[in-house]
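hiii so my PI (J.) wants the whole complex modelled not just the main chain, which honestly fair. so below is everything: two entries, each one labled with what it is. i double checked the lines twice but i was tired so who knows lol
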Amino acid sequence: MRTYIKDLKGHVGKNINIAGWVDVRRDHGKLIFVDIRDVTGKVQTVVHPDQSEAHAQAEKIRPEWVVEISGKVNKRPDKMVNPDHPLGDIEISIEKITVISAAAELPFDLQEKLNIDTYLDHLPLTLRTPRAKAIFTVESKIVQAYREFLVGEGFTEFQSPKIVGGDAEGGAGVFRVNYIDDHDAYLATSPQLYKQIMVGAFEKVFAIGNVFRAEKHHTTRHLLEYTSLDFEMGFIKNHLDVMNVVTKLMHYTNDFLQKNCVDEFKLLDAEFAKIPEEIPYMKLREAQELIKKETGEDCTKEKDLTPEHERWLSAYALKKFDSDFIFITHFPIEKTAFYAYEDENDPGYTNYFDLLFRGVELNSGGQRVHDYETLMKRMEQKGLDPEKFSFYLQAFKYGMPPHGGIGMGLERMTARFLNLSNVKEATLFPREINRIDKLLST
Amino acid sequence: MRTYIKDLKGHVGKNINIAGWVDVRRDHGKLIFVDIRDVTGKVQTVVHPDQSEAHAQAEKIRPEWVVEISGKVNKRPDKMVNPDHPLGDIEISIEKITVISAAAELPFDLQEKLNIDTYLDHLPLTLRTPRAKAIFTVESKIVQAYREFLVGEGFTEFQSPKIVGGDAEGGAGVFRVNYIDDHDAYLATSPQLYKQIMVGAFEKVFAIGNVFRAEKHHTTRHLLEYTSLDFEMGFIKNHLDVMNVVTKLMHYTNDFLQKNCVDEFKLLDAEFAKIPEEIPYMKLREAQELIKKETGEDCTKEKDLTPEHERWLSAYALKKFDSDFIFITHFPIEKTAFYAYEDENDPGYTNYFDLLFRGVELNSGGQRVHDYETLMKRMEQKGLDPEKFSFYLQAFKYGMPPHGGIGMGLERMTARFLNLSNVKEATLFPREINRIDKLLST
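here's the output for the full assembly
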């Protein structure tokens, strides 16, 4: 019967079995110390020379060997207690070691900080480091928070298809798939059209899934395949209703992480987010005027924010509103998708927003066009062929409410919460222009 | 301020606003009845001729128009109460109708049962039918149950990549993707290799995501893209530990559906599953002997079950054990994947199983090889090139515990729970050999 390491405290003075990986081994000659780790934690074990069989095994084992250990849980003497470790006041006195799997000699010391290429080349090994495990535990909790919150708000989850029939929006950056019988298909760059269709049936929906961008970017914030968290809701008044749900979602996520990921944030030296009750927002043009006034740089003619402006505005929001988040709204209609809703009170600009989080765009979203005729007109203006959208357009032909939503990259969100400098660190198996697991040979 | 339809009962005698779609409209000349539906339910409204403006609007509106209605919630007279409907004892007396979106005339009556092709051609409309909404509500609840259960059991969710570097297992049925710079990539047929890698770091993991099979099947149970529910767990004794988790998962899911989807099951005339505390199991050879003994058909030389045998064994399990489920174990090693674990006590056969649910294979899984040398040998026997698996093999080179897991199709599970004859009915936007949303032209 296996005891999980986190539960050992309840077994002081008793004999137990644990199973896990050898984390660190320190051979003091007579005494050999072995730190064992399992899914729940890490504990120090020690073998004394009088346990001759176990001692012989302990001389042989090395980091990453998988072992089962039988022994007794002892309190450590006061001066041996490690106050920084949750199980720092106990120790297992080993009676028997059973080797389940040996491991080859490690190519590097797993306790050292690795450069990103070495890390990526050896993910099946390097994902075992405390740093990687903390990052992907947090990522998994962000997904959990996202779902819990939206289910609680009455949203229905759906699975959006990844293979799509057309490169409909005509943008660059779409992967082509060889479908059946010489037909071409494509990989979805977003679940956008499907989630709008789903609003027609379920009113409030969300989807979690991978999306694909065939872009030759080589930056610290772009990925060729990433996980998109999307939601879409019907019967909104305007984009402010969507921003309100986003704000509540950010509060929920931050609270959820504070409840579930204190150790991970500590290990990664990360801080929980600062979120005021209402996240500040301003129009793009207001933001540009502000930048001009405060820095002297005139960006008022630009149609979008540059990365530098995003950083400046985030710093401004932090200083002025004590907020790690700020919404920028009303992008020019010529820069937004054909389905972006034009603000009647601000013609030429859409009810769209970007949410900046600690210097980077975390998500964008807004209100969508729900009127069939307007949608057709907007497609024409963008030079798109309505015939290619005939499936999607049925939703609008047969009655759609005002609606809106967002899409955001899970990996980017994790990276911002944890202040990771490279989004690849928050991506389990990043697909890059020159790498799919291993470097692509030319 | 909008009131959701399900909450109307609390507003009898009061004025409210509701918003939704026109479901059915019955024009009695003076009185016009309009059933309105929103995300939470459906309610009957009525406009009297003395409300002349509203009456004029009610003459104009048609099914699927999106409207906002102001009016008063009234109790219906006793003889007008519809006891089969949750809101059958109230009615909204309309004071004002605001049209939000008009809808084109419907191409068919949404209340009628449609043939599958008409249904698929018009999904943005047909997903609005009570039948489709019930099916995909149940599907969404199955996903929720799956996650809740596994998170509760200490599993960590991860996002498995869909673009993979090689057609590693060399099977047929892999879609090719044009990656960057003329490199080929492929669409993952399963997250198998990644979840095994993840066991090395997280011990117990699960993934929910689409997988892709370029197979020219044209059956009622195959899909080219489907949602796979996968889990994998370390430190098992053998496949029975995995089967035990599967059994608990099926109980949890069935209980969850009984708590959350009574109306949907009723509407679809479906029955909750019969699951004994322990799901019966037998070896493939025992099953074949049984079939031979009971039916006279000799299939004892076959290496797998045919669909007919699956149906026969399911019927047997129901009759004999009052169980909608039965496990069949120990498939011949030459018929299972290279990573299937050979049973030391039954050489030539693997610790693998299929779970049959109401006549169809719901999932397969089992114990995997965890020893590096054995894995290399098994690859050689299957004629696979270990070099192509070098990334994956690192996990085994550096110490892996005994482990196992399953993969199962969400859509197939939904179809079995609801006794749908075609798995496409449980697939939101099915990808078929001749269809991606619309029929592929030749």
